[in-house]
Design a protein that fits this description.
The chain is mainly beta and 535 residues long. It folds into five domains: 1-100, Tailspike Protein, Chain (Beta Complex), CATH 2.170.14.10; 105-180, Thrombin, subunit H, CATH 2.40.10; 193-270, no CATH class; 284-421, no CATH class; 425-531, Immunoglobulins (Immunoglobulin-like), CATH 2.60.40.10. The protein has no helices and 42 strands. The strands form eleven sheets. It has a seven-stranded antiparallel beta sheet with strand order 7-13-10-11-12-9-8, with no helix packed on it. Strands 14-16-19-20-18-17-15 form a seven-stranded mixed beta sheet, with no helix packed on it. It starts with a strand and ends with a strand.
């Protein structure tokens, strides 16, 4: 039991004439009451003072010093030898020794009584000082442990419930509790600020000894994350995962610049991730490796029954007014040998935790405006008006967060061709050829047949011609034959777009005069801009 030196009663007492108050008495009670309360003769707290305390020939306590139980308040009454009341002092508490040291913890004056691994009680209403959010330091059988107050409730006692740090606990040897100097409701602690080193596996120094639930850190990330599984270690502690607030995985680029990280007990939550640096589009792969022309370049090898891409994909999957965003690195589609000979379709399912799972289909995805559910087993259908995808199982069609990624050709159980669909289901390419009697085709590979509004084929002027300047663009439908008749036809399906003319000699309306003017083919490039045509 902890005892503290009494600030009153250890002095010499004298009478009205200045003589020692020989035979005087000091009665000790619980504060504001007449209930006797024990005091002690030294700092060990093992030998009780008398009550009353008799004053000796010097007017001082006969048995020695007066020490009070830590955390309790006392009332003292002083009498002379004839039992006449001389003085009353109330609400007295013990004081610590005269030796002081700089420390961030102060004595609470409370004697904690162990209740459980994360709670204790204290005498009296202590809720003012033991308030929610305040940090505390304890002495237990296991040694010094730390925690944060979750609740503090007074009935007949004050019951305090703690969030202990890490795996630390209170035990039956609980003997002392100290409060942090700083109160939670009077915040003066400087922010823990640091600059990270590394990429994806980060380190930073912020001046912490342990990870504490609810603590936040202001960190400057010099290098953005390139994967979905970034981690960080503060001040040499264990590397821990960084996630989004909903527990989902990060997306590449979520970390770059100044961010607030909060420890939740199992991972760091980034409170203010960067917005995606690419246009957001629903129900598609929105990020992945591309070649010099901006076309999907996910890699992968033929020659086996497995296709493994290289790099990270970020996909969005829609379900009515809800969206999931998921990431996957070096995705691998297995079991393609089971197709035998035919086409296989490489899809991703976006999971609730922000990860993705690979899916192999033998039926090409269907995109349509409406209609009744298709229950064909393994058939993925996406309703572009409702923005809901479903997969049939032979009996019903169930909602699915599925996204198309590419397709393969399989012969005798071996992958022979790989075609990756374009990011965001959008294709753009330039051709130095111009419409002629020989059909020009492009493999757009947006993964579906675009709506008519999603097909744009234009001729771009490269050198002044027919009144047009360089970079002027004219839709191909404005080019005609010499007889002013329609000269060009184009078509587009789920994989290819093509264009052909009935003549190599085309005319276009002069930009300045409007008159039909023969164009010079060498002065123009052909542009293909193919988009799925819906949000």
């Amino acid at each position: 039991m902890a005892v503290l030196f009494s600030p009153w009663g250890n002095q010499q007492f004298v009478d009205a004439n200045g003589n020692p108050l020989v035979g005087g008495k000091i009665m000790t009670y619980a504060a504001t009451s007449s209930t006797p309360l024990t005091t002690y003769v030294d700092a060990s707290g093992t030998v009780q003072q008398s009550n009353p305390i008799i004053l000796n020939s010097r007017g001082a306590p006969t048995l020695g010093e007066i020490w009070l139980t830590s955390g309790l308040l006392y009332k003292f009454q002083l009498f002379d030898a004839a039992n006449n009341l001389i003085d009353t002092v109330d609400n007295i508490s013990g004081v610590s020794g005269v030796t002081t040291a700089n420390d961030e913890w102060v004595d609470s004056g409370v004697t904690p009584v162990y209740v459980s691994a994360s709670s204790y009680t204290a005498i009296g209403d202590q809720t003012t000082q033991l308030h929610q959010g305040r940090r505390q330091k304890f002495q237990t059988t296991a040694g010094t442990v730390y925690g944060t107050i979750l609740t503090s409730v007074f009935t007949t006692l004050t019951t305090v419930t703690m969030q202990m740090d890490g795996a630390q606990v209170l035990d039956s040897g609980l003997s002392a509790v100290q409060n942090s100097i700083l109160r939670n409701n009077v915040w003066s602690l400087p922010m823990r600020i640091g600059t990270t080193s590394g990429t994806d596996t980060y380190t930073a120094n912020v001046g912490t000894l342990r990870y504490v639930i609810g603590e936040e850190y202001e960190l400057n990330f010099s290098n953005q994350n390139t994967t979905t599984s970034a981690t960080i270690a503060l001040d040499g502690l264990v590397q821990q995962s960084i996630t989004l607030q909903n527990g989902y995985s990060l997306y590449p680029g979520a970390l770059k610049g100044q961010h607030t990280l909060r420890w939740n007990g199992t991972a760091f939550t980034v409170m203010n991730p960067n917005q995606m640096s690419f246009p957001f589009r629903r129900q598609t792969v929105i990020y992945g490796p591309v070649d010099a022309n901006g076309l999907s370049s996910f890699g992968g090898a033929t020659g086996s029954g497995t296709v493994t891409m290289s790099g990270t994909l970020v996909a969005t999957a829609a379900n009515s007014n809800l969206d999931r965003i998921g990431t996957i690195t070096n995705a691998s589609w297995t079991g393609l040998a089971a197709i035998g000979t035919g086409a296989g379709y490489l899809n991703l399912t976006v999971n609730a935790d922000g990860t993705c799972t690979t899916v192999v289909r033998t039926l090409q995805a269907i995109y349509r405006n409406g209609g009744t559910d298709v229950i064909t087993n393994g058939q993925f259908v996406f309703n572009t008006q409702e923005m809901v995808g479903k997969v049939g199982n032979g009996t019903i069609a169930n909602q699915s967060y599925e996204v198309i990624v590419g397709e393969v050709g399989v012969t005798a159980g071996v992958v022979t061709t790989i075609s990756w669909y374009q990011l965001r289901n959008h294709y753009y390419a330039r051709d130095t050829g111009v419409p002629s009697t020989s059909r020009i085709t492009k493999n757009h590979l947006i993964g579906m047949t675009p709506r008519p509004t999603g097909v744009a084929i234009t001729l771009e002027c490269q050198s002044s011609d027919a009144g047009y300047s360089a970079l002027d663009q004219v839709p191909v439908v404005q080019f005609t034959s010499s007889g002013q008749g329609l000269a060009i036809a184009y078509s587009c399906d789920a994989k290819q777009v093509g264009i052909i003319s009935n003549t190599a000699s085309l005319f276009v309306a002069n930009k300045g005069t409007g008159s039909s003017t023969a164009y010079v083919a060498a002065n123009w490039d052909l542009l293909f801009d193919i988009d799925r045509g819906w949000a």
